[in-house]
Write a structure and sequence with these properties.
Elements (H helix, E strand, L loop, with lengths): L1 E4 L7 H8 L4 E4 L17 E4 L7 H9 L4 E4 L9 H7 L2 E3 L6 H17 L1 H9 L17 E5 L3 H13 L2 E5 L5 H5 L3 E2 L2 H7 L2 E4 L13 H6 L5 E4 L8 H9 L5 E4 L21 H6 L5 E3 L8 H20 L6 E3 L16
Parallel strand pairs: 1-2, 1-3, 3-4, 4-5, 6-7, 6-9, 7-8, 9-10, 10-11, 11-12
Antiparallel strand pairs: 5-13
Pfam families: 2-Hacid_dh, 2-Hacid_dh_C
Enzyme class: oxidoreductase
Keywords: NAD, Oxidoreductase
Length: 344
Amino acid sequence: MEILAFGVQADERPLLERAFDGHHQIRCLDVSLNRDTAPIAAGYEIITAGVNADLNAEVLQELAAGGTKMIAQRSTGHSNIDLRAAADLGLTIGRVASYSPYSVAEFAWGLAMAVNRRLVRAAHRTRDFDFRLDGLMGRDFRGRTAGVVGTGRIGEAFTRIAHGFGMRLLGWDVADNPACAELGMTYVDLDRLLAESDLVSLHVPLLESTWHLIDGPALAAMKDDAILVNSSRGGLVDTAALVETLKAGRLRGVGLDVYEEEAGLFFFDKSLEVIHDDTLARLMTFGNVLVTSHQAYFTEDAVGQIVDTTLANVEDYLAGRAGENLLVAPEGRLTPERQPAAGR
């Protein structure tokens, strides 16, 4: 069987082709799946898509009309999928429930270190043979407070690194993680975490309850010299409120690997185009802000696991098995607790 893969990155393609070799043919496209590209899938029973695919009801209807019956999303998050519409159309939806938590946790720390020690600015200067230290002073993380918002597998990995730095640990989640508690983490309410933390890192899924979790009041509760890192989902942060906070001269630094309106921008070369997103354009003007293009997961280890799980989801579908990664079962039934986030 030939399977169509949308949104395949150049470094991801060899891993996909190697994993599917001997099992199925796979046709890789670098274009993202959306309303304009959905007709390409006509005739393909199984397709796979990346995290920035736009799988709203209209797109799903187009796919179903073209003969698609199964969509294997190559990501953990699924806020981009209208699961109710998929169920109504009888589509099977799979995802990657988990992959290397260290890929994201380590990258989140990379962002924190980069904004704290002004590494990007320093690198730009030295390329011009400007070796001054003006404006490059950082500070030790040891002895300061790390606030971890979400202490699942990735949050726990982030916490272990923070513990290695010798930081005081605060956590917020719907349930305590005993492994984090053993490291000395104190679980507190979100307001206290934001008020006391020198570094706040976000590791919660995007749900209706977490949409704009870090909004204007939350940002106001943070220390003026705190660092904010988001390597989870862009919708966790109210970007307009963040811009206003930065314009007021608050926050020591911000590291963002995700952005709430990243679809259609991230993973593409927009260097020769006019950017019409005024909020993102303004955000990029701040010298203490580092934005990367949703690459925290992008390691050989994590992508390899994502690809292997995607193949397993395809094989489960073809064998009629209800695998653990199902969001919508073959008979059009939503699996427990699978609901779209904030209508997105």
